[in-house]
Amino acid sequence: MKKLTIIGVGLMGGSLALAAKKNIAGITVCGFARSDKSYRKLKKLPFLDIVERDLKSAVKDADLVAVALPVFAAADCFREIAGFLKPGTIVFDLSSTKEEIENSARKYLPKNISFVGCHPICGSEKTGAEHSVGDLYRDALCLITAKEKDPATITIAQFWSALGMKVAFLNAKAHDKMLGAISHLPHVVSFALINSLDEGYLKFAPPSLCDMTRIAGSPASVWVDILFSNKKNVSSSLRSYAKSLKQFEAILAGGKKAAAVKFIEKANTRRDIVRNDLV
Amino acid sequence: MKKLTIIGVGLMGGSLALAAKKNIAGITVCGFARSDKSYRKLKKLPFLDIVERDLKSAVKDADLVAVALPVFAAADCFREIAGFLKPGTIVFDLSSTKEEIENSARKYLPKNISFVGCHPICGSEKTGAEHSVGDLYRDALCLITAKEKDPATITIAQFWSALGMKVAFLNAKAHDKMLGAISHLPHVVSFALINSLDEGYLKFAPPSLCDMTRIAGSPASVWVDILFSNKKNVSSSLRSYAKSLKQFEAILAGGKKAAAVKFIEKANTRRDIVRNDLV
Question: Collapsing DSSP states into helix, strand and coil, what is residue A218?
Answer without folding.
Answer: coil
